[in-house]
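Hi, here's the filled form for the chain we discussed.

Project: internal
Contact: R.S.
Residues: 365
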Amino acid sequence: MSAFYEKVEVVGAVTVVKGRGIEGVKEQVLSLSKGGFVAILYDVNLKEYAESLAVALAREKHQVLSTCLVSEIPDHTRFVLGVGGGAVAYAVRRKATELGVESGFVFSAPTTDTILTKYKNLSSFKVVFLDVDLLFGCPKECLASGWGIALTEPLRAFERYYENKVLDRAEIFDAPPALPQNANPYDLALHLLRLSPNNHHDDNATVMAKVLYDSAKRQGVHPRLIGEYKFVCGAILSTLYENFLSSPSIDCMIPPAHDQNLEKLRRLTGRSMENLLKAFDFFDSDSYFRVGYILSEYRLDLLERLKSTDFHSAQKRWRRLYADAGYWLKSAFTTHSLLEAMKLSAEIGDGLLRYIAESGFAEVY
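And the returned structure, exactly as it came back:
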């Protein structure tokens, strides 16, 4: 390993290394590319970093291209390196898979838990670089996004517990320990990498966050990061679950408004009605009542488990990650917009949130 970077651990068969600066990255890329053409795909905010790395590689008489457009990467590329966040990581993995070559990634800001997610037919990285200088210099909203994901993990664990107990889904894995309050940006980035191999499908807070993201884009508003939305959605869903499970009479009439909600989702997300209907699989009457019966057996146990997550105590700590202590939240949402997003996400969500939609509770909440 380079004197500039040291191996930290292997996560999901991917080597994670820690260091600072471009020289160590350059040495690793020279070794992995074996003299072949290197393409660097970067986030627009990291153009200077990527171009400095390209210059350093060129000094070694290495053929290299740095670009923010995946379409510019030539077919004769032998190694693809990404510099940025989740969108760049996915684009690099897709292009490397298409070309049949290896790839690496410089994780520049701890904003997402999808870097090492196991997508079908998509190769993973050979190495992920954690550049301490980049991570400690990232904007506050990036840190808030990463912490939003990390602090919402207990809610995700609760949803998995529900699925295991009520729906008999045996999805079990060893989650990394919770981050301490004094964790730094490097610790946060490594934590998100550890989470990403087990991120097989979106949890309900992520589903709702994406609805808010699409809604902001549709309104012509520059959207926040998914992780920022996710924490807000986690707070709302935690309250929804607690109120629902606190009621001993949780079986209501099935509401007639599903078609209307699906049409709203179609306009909002741009997905076809056929695509939405594939995700929208109604309970038949037998399974609906079966789930209701099992849920009534575990209701108090679930409620106790939910309260033990102590999700609400994290809210002040999360808001204080921002320079304005989260004041931006007052102008970003209305009560109506948040409840509408919750109702729509319940239609395409999973587990307890889906059952809440089927029971009609989300319509009247």
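Let me know if anything looks off before we file it.
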